[in-house]
């Protein structure tokens, strides 16, 4: 990344905070004129540093009252079974994120639900029915202390 400098980092930091920041304001914030700033932003996009833009939605307004983390275990560690599991979870909107992890579980899922009843039905009818799943341990979030604010620019 020879062309990745402090201005590029400043651009990335600014758009992580506000993906809709006007180019004029972004340019001012990073100390460039608009045209060079727009060029750098376009380069960061085309080089794959920026893979998309999205809105941060309100859980309260959407009435999502439960955020749970589920540790999923497999008893058989078969590549085809894992691949099938990973494909199937891609289509389940309620699963906010999924990580293949080390330790006693195979996957860690973040799941959103309106309430505990809805989460329980999801666990019974969807999660436990996924290919390869032999055990699930739920961890309920009581309060969110820090929300995903973007990646650190190390």
UniProtKB/TrEMBL annotation:
Domain of life: Bacteria
HTH asnC-type domain ranges (all copies): 4-67
Keyword Cell membrane attributed: no
Pfam family, one: HTH_24
Keyword field contains DNA-binding: yes
One GO BP annotation of this record: response to amino acid
MF terms in GO: sequence-specific DNA binding
A GO term from the CC aspect: cytosol
Keywords associated with the record: DNA-binding, Transcription, Transcription regulation
SUPFAM superfamilies, alphabetized: Dimeric alpha+beta barrel, Winged helix' DNA-binding domain
PANTHER family xrefs: LEUCINE-RESPONSIVE REGULATORY PROTEIN (PTHR30154), TRANSCRIPTIONAL REGULATORY PROTEIN (PTHR30154:SF46)
Name used for this protein in its record: AsnC family transcriptional regulator
Species for this entry: Caballeronia choica
